[in-house]
């Protein structure tokens, strides 16, 4: 390894620049504290982000989306690895914390001061104002979403236009590649530049390996400097934190860093997920999936344990999703503007674990859905198939093994409903992750307290989706940001008082 | 990922067989219109170590499929393209999870290569009716709980961070 050695120092050091880390930086730098952000991925300026999907995914997505759970039937866990984290590739869907979740976190985890109603609403209001959250207008929703709306109305399901942090969205359907007009207010175009204007510094291509702890107190972060192209280490860094270290490296990588730093107990436990799967339908008339917002319409069915979302696929992924190979597949590929795709996300009850992998920079993620979780997934996929037919699809591709790859009649949905669905039958993927360093009042059942400070180490904070005591059944970014906003505001006040 | 000459030849032979250039209907790429090997290499190089093993295992599984499926004593590259296509189609529909999944990895490579070619993408008509329309935003209504409407729009748009 080359001898490059980076050293720096500030009041606060934040590891990770996704929804959690960037919000912490926004609040702390805004309150006048000196702050350094460390990010493993590169800074991808909008104009430089490649539009070709293969290059876009290579640059912005962790391991091209191939990072998976372990076990017999692994499935991918999608995450961003660039400045902005997963917000730089997400669809900007915004949901406030559902009331039942908020109450559960108060009643069962003692998080009253963190999620107290007025304070949380105030954080939501500010974030929505600052990030331009609006309901998606029909004009830019695209037919993929509008067909779903029509079907939801026909079947009497509770659909709605999505609220997103993309006020100026023109419906280009390129959220994954990086919004060309910077309409989606991902962290790389909103809170990170704002924190930098307030004096924060950003070190990219810096992979935090461990927190340095002295006398029970976090004093800094050690890690590796990476080569931009090969991602191989080319040096080391140490960044000293005078007042606090904030780990916000995501549900997978935060517990890996904490465990490498010597923390144990429940670190890496209680992983919860919202895995998803999708159904494609073919329509006699053009849908033009490529026109319209990447995601614009949703049918939340939280009481049933799932949510359905319209989800635009770029042609590369749509082609992969269509069944078969050879001439039969080629026939399906001729009119790619005639397909719609809708996805389910399921609030699974199973708990998994995350551990640092043995002898490499990798994580070992275990998660096995419960039977009940698969039943909910089956119901979600059957509901989408019904919606597709209700919207006028002539062919529906459920993507489920052991049943026909093409359904042509609504009565065939029963084949999905009657299937004893297993994890081997479907392709799941997951982009909503929760837990692994959960917050709670009781140190015996949590890793961090209601102020998001580690129970065991002073001045060490976790500020990302790892602190969620449970999953939620809705998209997580807004709740992550609001929790972090509140915890970071209090931290800023305490630091000011101490100074 | 460094490919052996044999592997390189078979990557091309296998991935091109997902959409044979000799087909008479549907989306038919011209011979050598698509760089399959490049797509395979980019995906393999960007993957986790474990996935890279999977991508290579998929290649070897498909390469030797004519033998383990009892069809011929040769690698895929030696078979006519339509025979390769039939074998791949059977592997995608296999009852064995691992065979299906590894073949799907190859299909991802083929699809990224195919649609990554501008001319092929144009013929897929994905963008045929593409319209891009700007629109006025409307005011947020509460996603879950009732809340007062946001009245003031919103932050000044920021640009990418200039200094790192
Ligand atoms: C494709 C996709 C679409 C999504 N769509 C939505 C949506 O529309 N709405 C919604 O609410 N949610 C959505 N999500 C989920 C949402 O984006 C995440 O829940 C949220 O961004 C998680 O925030 P986080 O701060 O916990 O982690 P992340 O945003 O993932 O940020 C973690 C950051 O830490 C960095 N990091 C990791 N390890 C290290 C290390 N060792 N050293 C330094 N840096 C490190 C990573 O590179 C990354 O930048 C989506 C996610 C994906 C992947």
β-strand amount of chain A: 15-25%
Class per helix and strand makeup of chain B: mainly alpha
Mean pLDDT of chain B: 83
Percent helix of chain B, as a range, is 40-55%
What kind of sheet is the major sheet of chain A?
A: 7 strands, mixed
Residue share in helix of chain A? 25-40%
Biggest interface reads: A-B, 91 and 74 residues
Record field, number of beta strands of chain A? 18
What is the residue-averaged pLDDT of chain A? 96
The fraction of residues in strands of chain B falls at: under 5%
Ends distance of chain B: 31 Å
CATH superfamily of the largest domain in chain A: FAD/NAD(P)-binding domain
> Terminal Cα separation of chain A, in Å?
40 Å
Oligomer: heterodimer
CATH architecture of the largest domain in chain A: 3-Layer(bba) Sandwich
Q: How many domains is the backbone of chain A divided into? A: 2
The domain tally of chain B reads 1
Small molecules bound in the structure, each named once: flavin-adenine dinucleotide
Detailed description of the structure:
- The complex is a heterodimer of chains A (499) and B (164).
- Chain A is an alpha+beta fold.
- Chain A folds into 2 domains: 4-90 and 95-132 and 186-271 and 434-498, FAD/NAD(P)-binding domain; 135-176 and 276-347 and 370-417, 2-Layer Sandwich (Cholesterol Oxidase, domain 2).
- In chain A, 28% of the residues lie in helices and 22% in strands.
- Chain A is built from 13 helices and 18 strands.
- In chain A, the strands form 4 sheets. In chain A, strands 1, 2, 6, 7, 8, 9 and 18 form a 7-stranded mixed beta sheet that branches. In chain A, strands 4, 10, 11, 12, 13, 16 and 17 form a 7-stranded antiparallel beta sheet that branches.
- In chain A, a hairpin with a 2-residue loop joins strand 7 and strand 8.
- In chain A, helix 1 packs parallel to helix 13 (477-498) and helix 5 crosses helix 13.
- The radius of gyration of chain A is 22 Å and the shape is globular.
- The mean pLDDT of chain A is 96.
- Chain B has 164 residues and is an all-alpha fold.
- Chain B has one domain.
- The two termini of chain B are 31 Å apart.
- The structure holds flavin-adenine dinucleotide.
- Flavin-adenine dinucleotide (FAD) binds at residues 15-21, 38-41, 78-81, 85-87, 89-93, 207-208, 248-250, 253, 257, 431-432, 464-465, 475-478, 480 of chain A.
């Amino acid at each position: 390894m080359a001898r490059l050695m980076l050293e720096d120092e500030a009041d606060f050091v934040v590891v990770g620049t996704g929804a959690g880390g960037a919000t912490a930086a926004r609040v702390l730098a805004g309150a006048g504290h000196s702050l350094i952000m460390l990010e493993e991925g590169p800074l991808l300026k909008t104009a430089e982000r490649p539009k070709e999907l293969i290059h876009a995914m290579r640059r912005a997505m962790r391991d091209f989306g191939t990072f998976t759970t372990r076990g017999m039937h692994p499935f991918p866990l999608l995450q961003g690895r660039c400045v902005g984290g997963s917000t730089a590739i997400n669809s900007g869907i915004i949901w406030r914390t559902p009331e039942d979740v908020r109450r559960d976190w108060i009643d069962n985890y003692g998080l009253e001061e963190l999620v107290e109603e007025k304070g949380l609403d105030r954080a939501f209001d500010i974030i929505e104002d600052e990030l331009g959250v609006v309901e998606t207008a029909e004009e830019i929703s695209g037919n993929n979403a509008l067909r779903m709306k029509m079907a939801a109305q026909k079947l009497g399901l509770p659909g709605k236009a999505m609220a997103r942090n993309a006020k100026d969205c023109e419906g280009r359907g390129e959220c994954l590649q990086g919004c060309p007009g910077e309409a989606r207010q991902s962290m790389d175009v909103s809170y990170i530049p704002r924190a930098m204007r307030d004096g924060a510094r950003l070190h990219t291509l810096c992979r935090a390996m461990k927190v340095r702890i002295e006398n029970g107190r976090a004093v800094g972060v050690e890690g590796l400097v990476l080569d931009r192209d090969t991602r191989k280490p080319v040096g080391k860094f140490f960044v000293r934190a005078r007042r606090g270290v904030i780990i916000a490296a995501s549900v997978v990588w935060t517990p890996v860093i904490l465990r490498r730093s010597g923390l144990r107990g429940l670190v890496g436990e209680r992983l919860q997920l919202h895995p998803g799967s999708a159904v494609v339908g073919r329509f006699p008339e053009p849908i033009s999936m490529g026109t319209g917002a990447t995601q614009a319409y949703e049918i939340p069915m939280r009481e049933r344990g799932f949510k359905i979302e319209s989800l635009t696929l770029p042609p590369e992924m749509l082609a992969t999703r269509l069944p078969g190979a050879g001439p039969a597949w080629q026939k399906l590929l001729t009119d790619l503007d005639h397909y719609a795709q809708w996805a389910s996300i399921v609030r699974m009850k199973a708990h998994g674990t995350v551990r640092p992998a043995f002898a490499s920079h990798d994580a070992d993620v275990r998660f096995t859905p419960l039977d009940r979780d698969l039943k909910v997934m089956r119901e979600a996929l059957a509901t989408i198939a019904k919606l597709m037919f209700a919207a006028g699809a002539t062919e529906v591709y459920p993507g489920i093994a052991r049943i026909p790859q093409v359904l042509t009649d609504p009565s065939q949905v029963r084949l999905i409903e009657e299937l004893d669905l297993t994890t081997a039958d479907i392709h799941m993927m997951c982009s909503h992750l929760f837990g692994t360093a959960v917050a709670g009042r009781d140190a015996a059942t949590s890793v961090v307290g209601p102020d998001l400070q580690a129970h065991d180490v002073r001045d060490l904070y976790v500020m990302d989706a790892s602190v969620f005591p449970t999953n939620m059944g809705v998209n997580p970014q807004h709740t992550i940001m609001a929790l972090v906003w509140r915890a970071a505001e209090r931290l800023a006040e305490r630091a000011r008082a101490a100074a | 990922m460094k490919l052996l000459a044999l592997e390189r030849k078979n990557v091309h032979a296998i991935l091109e067989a997902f959409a044979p250039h000799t087909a008479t209907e549907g989306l038919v790429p011209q011979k050598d219109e698509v760089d399959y090997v490049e797509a395979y290499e980019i995906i393999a190089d960007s993957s986790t170590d474990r996935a890279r093993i999977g991508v290579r295992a998929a290649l070897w599984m498909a390469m030797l499929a004519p033998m383990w499926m009892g069809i011929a004593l040769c690698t895929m590259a030696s078979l006519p393209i339509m025979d390769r296509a039939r074998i791949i189609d059977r592997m995608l529909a296999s009852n064995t999870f691992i065979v299906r999944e590894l073949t799907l990895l190859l299909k991802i490579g083929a699809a990224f290569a195919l649609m990554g070619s501008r001319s092929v993408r144009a013929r897929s008509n994905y963008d045929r009716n593409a319209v891009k329309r700007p629109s006025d935003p409307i005011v947020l209504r509460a996603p879950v709980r009732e809340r007062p409407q946001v009245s003031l729009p919103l932050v000044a748009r920021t640009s990418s961070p200039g200094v790192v």
